[in-house]
Known about the structure:
disordered C terminus, 8-stranded parallel barrel, alpha/beta, 21 strands, 17 helices, single chain
Amino acid sequence: MPDEAALQKLALKLFEIDAFKFGDFKMKVGINSPVYFDLRVVVSHPDVMDTLADLLTEFIAEKKLDTAGVHLCGVPYTALPIATLISIKGNKPMLIRRKEAKKYGTKKLIEGKFNAGDKCLIIEDVVTSGSSILETVDDLRSEGLIVTDAIVVVDREQGGVQNTEEKGVRMHSLFTLSYLLKVVLEAKLIEEGTVKAVGKYIAACQIRSDGSFMHGNGTKVINELSRVRMTFEARADLAKCPLAKKLLRLIAAKKTTLCLAADLTTTEAILNLAEAAGPYICVLKTHVDIVSDFSIQFAHSLQLLAKKHNFLLLEDRKFADIGNTVAQQYAGGLHQIADWADLVTVHSLPGQGVLKGLKSVIGERPADSLRGVFLLAEMSTEGALTDEKYSAATMKIATEMDTDFVAGIVCQSKDLVASPGLLQLTPGIKLEEGVDELGQLYDSPDRVVKERGADICVVGRGILNSKSPAETARIYRDRLWQAYIERIAGDTNGTSAN
């Protein structure tokens, strides 16, 4: 390790410039913490930046990680200036990982000169669960780079070491939270009670890579905070399916959880509806097999509207056959669904083979044409045969098998979807609850979001049969978003917490 006196001096300097502080802070993973790190402030203190880079360069050398030919890659974005200084001081080549591939020029996700088989060392500022490191590792490895180690400024000691090791990455931290607490306590800058409170918090909040929490006694629990009390922004970082990550960020940016079921029979009616309601929805759901004048040109027109209004297309095909058959249904025929639909619905009845068949069609795709599926675990009709055993088997497929392809689950129960990286899509929503003449059950926006746990809410006839679909879509969007705000605030009684 670098000189102890130098480490202590830097630790105190970080506290002095408010790079870490104590209080009550909402974390990205959806829980509150009594300590908060913000190393972004370091860029405003060149002397601290220089010292930090020197100590990290020395640390890397002592760990024997500065082997010839190794590249450096800072996790975007806070670690980028730190990695840049280490690169200059250590005369090491650097790579830059984009959070999203650019849509012009080379369209690269990893910038810099490298070859498949080269080694790359990750640089990160602060680690809680290690999810940001693992996202960067996945992108680097997808380009053929070898990643086995990560250098971290601060380890919050909440599971990052274990989570990264499970993915074959050793994490080496310059500071741990315990060490920083010890230094500032000895300097009499904080009270003993603060140290005990933070220690208790660390013991109670060990975060696993799947978003679950570990109690201090080692018992794994899926805390309610793992999904229904977490923000969409926080959950995006935990999603294993790239399209789920994209959709969670879209929802957060657009502030809508409304999925419009465009169950109309002509292309003109659907396109007019998409144009009118597009600003208020996150997903447009289609049943193209009921469209009398379907054409691929119509599908491409839908894609243009989706891009214009920033929503995704979900074809409610409900694939339910052997892998070879669904591959042909997905890629070919009249509808050529894989060509234009971002998402499709799938019955899990055939088992994992149905997903393998669909996945065989899509291959490698750029970030702007990702594909994913929603697995049906429960249905919203009276007398549905999707019992608890069937639902549990569906969740096993979603969480243990094709986790990078399954974006979410179609269901009616809050407790079924535990992983924060999966989206719960729930149909059967109207402003007025009830049952139609064909057995379709309807719940109110408040009930379906706060009691049933829906993330994306499907509305069809409630909008389609209204005099002004655009205005009605706006009303549903607002009601659903308000229910979500109240849900993450812990208010299940309808009173908003500001």
